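Example for tutorial group B:
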């Protein structure tokens, strides 16, 4: 396929061949969205209406706090808290059910402005991924040489491919991912097993040698593979 404004960012995500490419895609979109709303967009009425209504999930609150712009986050939190307080907790309802406020409050914890925008961005990029997999032999080879696909994104790709690929292309697409995941899972399982065995007194000191780095970081890699998120700290 001829390179375009749609294919270039997809190729950039897949070219490293390290980790899960869809995680890289998500991380890239997340970074752009967080920078966007913590900048001038924070004062745009349409954006503030959405952030007041949806709020943010724990993961994205953490990412927003790392943007080193506490004032922008504080302003959004201030108006979000005010709307939540007045529209849920202080609002009087003569015929409202006793647990109505609790249900509305719980609903807020299930929405996130960043999540909604990131999902929209990923879905649009995946449209290009499916098209390139079928029509671009070079990209298909790039896809087949990925290190792994994390479990959540493997499931999502299989699910999305049902409406985007023909039966034959989808079967080939899933087979390719299955082979990648099986190979990676075997290696990862072996590394985690070696990590556990390294605590046996008969293997004392082996874990700290330079060539055992893949074993030392196997627990973190396993968490990333299973959840799509890199754990923070030790």
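The residue assignment follows.
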């Amino acid at each position: 396929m001829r390179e375009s404004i749609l294919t270039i960012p997809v190729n950039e995500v897949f070219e490293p061949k390290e980790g899960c490419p869809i995680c890289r895609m998500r991380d890239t979109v997340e970074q752009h969205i967080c920078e966007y709303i913590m900048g001038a967009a924070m004062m745009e009425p349409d954006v503030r209406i959405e952030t007041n209504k949806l709020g943010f999930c724990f993961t994205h609150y953490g990412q927003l706090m790392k943007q080193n712009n506490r004032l922008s986050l504080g302003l959004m939190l201030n108006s979000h808290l005010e709307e939540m307080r007045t529209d849920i907790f202080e609002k009087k309802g003569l015929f409202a059910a006793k647990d109505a406020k609790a249900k509305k409050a719980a609903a807020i914890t299930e929405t996130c402005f960043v999540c909604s925008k990131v999902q929209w961005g990923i879905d649009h990029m995946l449209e290009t991924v499916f098209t390139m997999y079928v029509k671009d032999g070079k990209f298909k080879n790039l896809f087949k040489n990925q290190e792994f696909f994390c479990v959540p994104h493997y499931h999502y790709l299989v699910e999305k491919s049902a409406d985007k690929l023909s039966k034959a292309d989808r079967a080939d697409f899933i087979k390719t991912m299955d082979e990648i995941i099986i190979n990676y899972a075997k290696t990862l399982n072996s590394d985690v097993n070696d990590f556990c065995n390294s605590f046996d007194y008969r293997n004392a000191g082996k874990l700290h040698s330079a060539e055992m780095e893949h074993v030392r970081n196997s627990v973190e890699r396993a968490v990333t593979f299973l959840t799509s998120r890199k754990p923070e700290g030790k």
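The chain is about 70% helix and 0% strand. Compare this with the pattern of hydrophobic and polar residues in the output above.
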